[in-house]
Amino acid sequence: MFGKRGGIPEARVAIPAAPAPAVQPSELPTRVTSGRVETGRARILSDEPMSGPIPAATPQPNNTVPPSVDSQRSDSFYETKGTIFNALIEAIDLAQLAKLDTDSAREEIRDIVNEIITIKNIVMSISEQEELLDDICNDVLGFGPLEPLLARDDISDIMVNGSHTVYIEVKGKIQKTGTRFRDDQQLLNVCQRIVSQIGRRVDETSPICDARLPDGSRVNAIVPPLAIDGPALTIRKFKKDKLTLDQLVRMGTITPQGAEILRIIGRSRVNTVISGGTGSGKTTLLNCLTKFIDNDERIITCEDAAELQLQQPHVVRLETRPPNLEGEGQITMRDLVRNCLRMRPERIIVGEVRGPEAFEMLQAMNTGHDGSLSTLHANSPREALSRLESMITMGGFSLPSRTTREMITSSIDVVIQVARLRDGTRKITHITEVMGMEGDVITTQDLFVFDILGEDVQGAILGRHRSTGIGRPRFWERARYFGEEQRLAAALDAAETAA
Q: Is the Cβ–Cβ distance between 171 and 251 less than 8 Å?
């Protein structure tokens, strides 16, 4: 079925069979007859009798495996793997393989690799054979050495710095793994496989690319000549189990009273900007807030690489597009935001504001699209407002500073600041209202803040969330309009009592 020439070329030469490793009865194949595995599917068969065990099933991913599981692999392991991989590519029909589902394709590859190992007289232990089989299946069908890391749900970031250096982030801490690629070409092939799934490319003519994995994980790839030490790949993993505000409370990211304030902000269609540094949890919090949008609202999202996964039924997702080889066809975030204003949105969600599109976003927030949400990079609520002003200037708008600031204050109601602390924990450090103007200065007031008190002997940050005692926030009337004023009053009172 899959043989290009009816079998593996080496099968025509009589090669003495390798001595079978000592195995337990439970490890022996269920049935091996004249060198063929009886599974009901056609195989590439050798003329020589088979020896040694044939694994019967693909092992399931194990999330408890330490990140350095493959740190003891020798260069000879990778040489053997390369030899077997090349023989597999010669023997298999990839076009036919592509027609199979993933599980069937893995079984086909595993059986053929077992026959190659036998024919080439390669002596391996059962564990080495299992490891090599999984590696080759991942290379052919998945993302190579990254597959075991992608299968682990406790990893939030994967950072590949060239073919031999891979770091991961677990629970806010970065650690080096033993994962490695065969060479830079294999890493480049994985990068190209990832970005090609969404119709993009990464090569010398287009060395920088933002993309996403099928599960929504965000990917950035940069390759030579810009990346001097080999291709660099960064993956921000998308959690399979989406976090909720209740989970953030249990993790200590915010207090129950603060979480209730955020729920009311979401329900009351308050225009919100989430500010924070890289990896602080901005997108996670944005996903949490979108859960409080009503199902009958029309939502339009604009992103560089689509990663938001809203549960509402009426959602239109838009994504930017890079230029083609001729430098044409680029669609920027500004183009998307400008166009979505013509699509009759009720809420506009901009994944991240980082340039001139800030002007269009503020215009949208100020012209009837209440409850719009966005994120941006900044280290404090005050800095977030200053960055918005700078972004508008970047767009070439020659507006007086006061006019720009008035636009910001009339468009944005709340800035939520998130931060990743030095111990790896993530906290919502500020819930801040934008009040208005005093002279030429934007005025704000904090509803909630997080105070750092010190650290314990293990280096964990000690601190507490506290209410600032504001009795009636500026969005009180909006909460009343949506029937949330009693909940808001109760949350503020409980927060002040707890403080």
A: no
Mean pLDDT of the chain: 78
Secondary structure class of 440 (helix, strand, coil)? coil
**Residues in contact with 301: Cβ distance below 8 Å, sequence separation at least 6, in sequence order:** 308, 310, 315, 316, 317, 318, 348, 349, 350, 351
**CA separation for the pair 391, 396 (Å, rounded):** 9
DSSP 228: T
The answer to whether the beta carbons of residues 275 and 416 sit under 8 Å apart is yes
Q: What is the pLDDT of residues 454-488, one digit of tens each?
A: 888 888 888 888 888 887 899 999 999 999 989 98
Neighbouring CB atoms inside 10 A of 422's CB total 12
Q: What is the DSSP letter of 92?
A: B
Q: Note the pTM of the prediction, 2 decimals.
A: 0.73
The answer to whether 276 touches 378, Cβ cutoff 8 Å, is: yes
Which ranges of 120-177 does DSSP label H, i.e. alpha helix? 126-141, 147-150
Phi, psi of 140 (to 5 degrees): -80, -40
Chain centroid offset of residue 246 CA: 22
**Of 335, 333, 366, 363, the residue nearest 350 (C-alpha):** 333
Half-sphere exposure of 173 (CA within 13 A, CB side): 8
- Pairing of the two strands 36-37 and 32-33: antiparallel
